[in-house]
Amino acid sequence: MTLLLGALLAAGVLLSISPWMWPPREKAESTARRGRLMRLQEEAGLGALGQRTVVSAIVAAAMIAASVVWLLTAIPVLALLAGIAGALAPVLFLRARRVRLLRLRRQLWPDVCDLLVASIRVGLSLPDAVAGLGSSAPVMLRPAFAVFARDLQATGRFEASLDRLKVALADPIGDRIVETLRMARQVGGTELTNVLRALSASVRADAALRGEVEARQSWIRGAAVLGAVAPWVILGLLVMRPEGASAYGTAEGVLVICVGAVVSVVAFRIMIRIGRLAEPRRWFG
Hints:
By secondary structure, the protein is mainly alpha-helical. It folds into three domains: 63 residues, no CATH class; 83 residues, no CATH class; 62 residues. It contains 13 helices and no strands. α2 crosses α4.
């Protein structure tokens, strides 16, 4: 009886402290994944689509790819791998679009700094100078600054409008400029123009260096894509023949396909890792 009471007491204590010992990680991880996907959409310039649209595109791409491969080969493992590849396709598209936008914007941010310096030197206040970029900034960046101008006119709160501007821009260099403006607004002083000039020169130098390095290392990505895709093209041609389909439909054929998929993914990741440049992280974004 004493042993039973002791066991019940221990179980009660364990259940009482279980929320702290074993927090709901699955929910937190699911929220983090949704947050990463939404952030990827914003940085790719497609934040207005919503997560449901992207998730629907992922599911549709996976089903279409798996269905096509199943109809052509009738090999379940190939259909499964095609479904996984199809599900990754929209995410890879978003990442490629994000990289392309970052590269294009990287060339434009020095002009934004120069426009801010010119506006401040002619006597405009800092909020008016930033709002004026809605009509004078490079065309790609005008919509975000136009939204900032409307938001500032409606609320009159400069820092809150800056926070929404950071979300609309979703750019690491844009974060640096916004935080510099926020600091200048809070602290004051006469060094803002010098800071913006230094930031403009730094961004120009970084963009030139990155452009040169990326041009020289572009062959690495091309070789990685060719090395990862070519074996699967050959495999697709083989399994479309009856004798090839029967050979790869066996247990040994399935094992070869699975090992090949793992090797392709690992080799592709290694090659991309070798040729990848570290991207600047966002500031408080």
